[in-house]
Amino acid sequence: MVSSNATRSRDYLNLMAEQGHRMQRIIEDLLTLSTLESAPQPPGGERIDTAALLAQVRSEAESLIAATGAGLGRRSYCIAD
């Protein structure tokens, strides 16, 4: 049987490890946020040809799908206000 002090010590160390991992994730998130905020802002008012962009995305997706043997389907979605 494990002594009460040993159990409490193990529980305390596990809690410390969990909180250490949590703090590490917070630090990584803050570093990511800092990187994003320090990046130059994209130019405003730039028009994007969405049809061309979607055609490029579809072409790349079809190439990846063909390479894996998967399929590409089409679904219709209805969004009601």
Structure explained in plain terms:
With 81 residues, the protein is an all-alpha fold. The chain has a domain at 1-34. It contains two helices and no strands. It has helices at residues 4-38, 50-68. The longest helix is centred in the N-terminal third of the chain and has 35 residues, at 4-38. The radius of gyration is 25 Å and the shape is elongated. The model has no long low-confidence stretch (mean pLDDT 86).
Task: Give a brief outline of the structure.
The protein is mainly alpha-helical and 81 residues long.
Keywords:
2 helices; elongated; mainly alpha; 81 residues; 0% strand
Give the SSE string: HH
Kindly provide the radius of gyration, computed on alpha-carbon positions and rounded to a whole number of angstroms: 25 Å
Main pleated sheet: none
Number of DSSP helical runs: 2
* Global morphology: elongated
What's the SSE blueprint?
Blueprint: H1 4-38, H2 50-68
